[in-house]
TrEMBL record:
Positions of the Complex 1 LYR protein domain: 6-56
UniProt-listed CDD domains: Complex1_LYR_LYRM9
Pfam families: Complex1_LYR (PF05347)
Name by which UniProt lists this protein: Complex 1 LYR protein domain-containing protein
Protein family membership: Belongs to the complex I LYR family. LYRM9 subfamily.
Region forming the signal peptide: none
Species whose genome carries this gene: Dichanthelium oligosanthes
Length: 86
């Protein structure tokens, strides 16, 4: 997975730290498993789709715990947008 994937993974782990302490291990493991499953992506379209899903899912989880998802996921969104050419 190119550097964008690694940067997205790091950003997701930063977002996990904003969650309630008792939920962090679950979401950190979930994020790791998902990024490991897709680490061999080669096409930019596939990576862009993965980054989009990472953003959407992260925003949903943060909103679930009443955390300002729009502000918190801004860096992840920029990373995804840079790969989709938006």
């Amino acid at each position: 997975m190119p550097n964008a994937g690694l940067r997205a993974y790091r950003e997701v782990l930063r977002l996990v730290r904003r969650l309630p302490a008792e939920t962090r291990p679950y979401y950190a493991k979930y994020a790791r498993e998902n990024f490991v499953n897709y680490r061999d992506l080669s096409a930019d379209d596939d990576l862009a789709a993965l980054l989009g899903r990472a953003y959407t899912h992260s925003a949903w989880v943060l909103s679930k715990y009443s955390i300002d998802a729009e502000k918190a996921t801004a860096r992840l969104k920029v990373l995804g947008d840079s790969h989709t050419g938006q």
